[in-house]
Amino acid sequence: MAVADRVDHVRSFDPDQDRLSLLERSIDYNGYDNFTTYQTEVDSLDDYLDDGQPDIILMDIDGWEHEVITSSPDTIAAEPIWLIELHTDQPDVPDEKLNPHEVVEHLQNHGYETEEFAHRGSYDPFGRERDDLNAWHVLATPTE
Predict the structure, then answer these.
(1) Residue 128's domain is classified under what CATH number?
(2) Is the pLDDT of residue 122 over 50?
(3) Is residue 48 part of a domain?
(4) Which is more confident, 54 or 123?
(5) What is the distance between the alpha carbons of residues 102 and 87, in angstroms, rounded to a whole number?
(6) Residues 30 and 72 in one domain
(7) Count of the separate structural domains present in the chain
(8) Most confident of 24-28, 94-98, 131-135
(9) Residue 47 within any structural domain of the chain
(10) How far apart are CA 27 and CA 7, in angstroms?
């Protein structure tokens, strides 16, 4: 939501209707009119480029980052800024799909500089115990 005032359009994807409804209520409450929400699982961001090239991508997809990023070569070529929450342990994701270090390496190999800028252990903004979550945030910017 913090970037909504700085970009032309925001697209949000979530397979969970409850989370999507919460986001839509927040969008309405804050008076944003530049959001499109999709209740869907996304395999490739390239499927959504018809609506224009993204300037920034905020990604928190609970361990499926590697699969989505590696299947989105056109999106990577458009050189958006990426802000990604990466997971090393996610109960609903098979271990062979959890490749957080490969996500960073994939972006670096495609011309991005990456910076890890925040660790999160048991912190949860809603005050819930999250000792089972091992995640961190990565900022990836295209090299000039």
Answers:
(1) 3.30.110
(2) no
(3) no
(4) 54
(5) 12
(6) no
(7) 2
(8) 24-28
(9) no
(10) 15
Please enumerate in sequence order all residues whose Cβ is within 8 A of that of 89, keeping only pairs 6 or more positions apart, or say none.
Answer: 98, 132, 133, 134
Mean residue pLDDT of the chain comes to: 79
Tokens of 136: 């961190």
Answer yes or no: do 35 and 103 share one domain.
Answer: no
Asked if residue 49 belongs to a domain, the reply is no
Q: Is there a single domain that holds both residue 25 and residue 92? A: no
pLDDT band at 110 (very low <50, low <70, confident <90, very high): very high
What tokens were used for 63?
């361990």
Alpha helices, H only, the chain: 17-30, 65-70, 73-77, 100-109
Residue 27 φ/ψ, nearest 5 degrees: -60, -50
- Residue 47 neighbours by CB under 8 Å, 6+ apart: none
Show the domain range for 68. 54-142
Chain position carrying tokens 């999250």: 130
Q: Is residue 114, in this structure, part of any structural domain at all?
A: yes
Bigger pLDDT: 39 vs 129: 39
pLDDT of res. 60: 80
C-alpha pair distances (Å), 79 with each of 16, 26, 59, 111? 28, 29, 15, 9
